[in-house]
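Q: Please design a sequence for this.
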């Protein structure tokens, strides 16, 4: 009997193990489960499965009852592996338990596979990350490198996308990864609608830095937020640093320092990222010519847009539109 009931929906299987972090399971169901087409039709069917069905321990004070076994993995087109606190065997030896290895062996060729947080240890132990880019929680990066030196680990990013294999950092980065996959599947409009519903940013670049301990700036009544809000409405024209500082009633020097404290970026870096984002939205949602998009996003010329888009994403505007244009 088939596990997935709706052939017109993309089947997503979430493989959970003892020590499950409930938030990571909930994120997948919340985002993929709520994704809708322009006509309001569900786009995904999400099924939770385990190497052995039954009560799965969590790191909270309640279990999760899972009725589906590993057979779901053979039917899924996307498999997502959240972290588990009870991964002592993998962290100690780099090897999977026989039950988990047998479950993963059911995944068919061409299936997209993703991990959340230290779920990357499972993918690496299964040999799915050999020679490929990956990330995991920064606290586990050193141990990951010891166990899996053949993986191209980058512990400083939110997520990695290598086509059919994706990984994310901590729990919150799992939200970014899920939105990224939905955006890749169905475009910016669907992902943005989900983000609004969930009250999270619609898109954070995978290359954005993970959180690492740093001094917390003293609370201040003044902020650079008014300048950022103003700049969002002015992206199509040149914006001078002194204009930004004036909208926060600060000197240029003070504004620059506080801007970096609040965003982790210089004003110029932030403006460039926002302009790339605006260009991506226009490429996905409109048929405007590249020169017009460049002007509206604030890059001035098509050549400048091509240069910045290739630097950020490694593709030309036409190639990006061909991949992500919303029908």
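A: Design:
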């Amino acid at each position: 009997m088939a596990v997935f009931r709706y052939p017109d929906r993309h089947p997503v299987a979430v493989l959970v193990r003892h020590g499950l972090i409930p938030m990571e399971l909930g994120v997948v169901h919340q985002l993929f489960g709520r994704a809708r087409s322009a006509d309001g039709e569900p786009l995904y069917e999400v099924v939770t499965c385990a190497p052995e069905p039954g009560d799965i321990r969590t790191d909270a004070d309640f279990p999760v009852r899972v009725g589906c076994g590993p057979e779901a993995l053979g039917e899924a087109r996307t498999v997502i592996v959240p972290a588990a606190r009870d991964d002592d065997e993998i962290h100690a030896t780099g090897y999977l338990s026989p039950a988990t290895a047998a479950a993963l062996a059911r995944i068919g060729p061409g299936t997209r596979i993703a991990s959340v947080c230290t779920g990357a240890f499972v993918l690496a132990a299964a040999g799915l990350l050999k020679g490929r880019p990956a990330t995991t929680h920064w606290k586990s990066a050193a141990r990951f490198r010891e166990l899996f030196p053949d993986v191209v680990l980058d512990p400083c990013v939110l997520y990695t996308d290598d086509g059919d294999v994706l990984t994310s950092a901590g729990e919150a980065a799992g939200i970014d990864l899920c939105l990224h996959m939905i955006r890749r599947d169905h475009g910016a409009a669907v992902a943005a609608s989900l983000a609004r519903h969930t009250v999270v940013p619609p898109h954070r670049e995978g290359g954005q830095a993970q959180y690492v301990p740093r001094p917390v700036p003293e609370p201040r009544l003044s902020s650079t937020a008014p300048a950022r809000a103003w700049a969002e409405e002015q992206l199509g024209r040149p914006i001078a640093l002194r204009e930004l500082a004036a909208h926060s009633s600060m000197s240029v020097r003070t504004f620059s320092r506080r801007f970096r404290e609040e965003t982790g970026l210089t004003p110029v870096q932030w403006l460039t990222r926002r302009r790339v984002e605006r260009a991506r939205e226009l490429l996905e949602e409109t048929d405007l010519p590249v020169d017009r998009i460049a002007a509206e996003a604030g890059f001035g010329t098509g050549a400048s847009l091509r240069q910045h888009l290739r630097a950020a994403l490694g593709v030309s505007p036409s190639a990006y539109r061909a991949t992500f244009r919303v029908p």
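Q: Thanks. Anything notable?
A: Strands lie at 10-15, 44-49, 54-56, 64-66, 78-81, 112-115, 133-134, 152-153, 159-161, 165-168. Confidence is low (pLDDT under 50) at residues 206-221.
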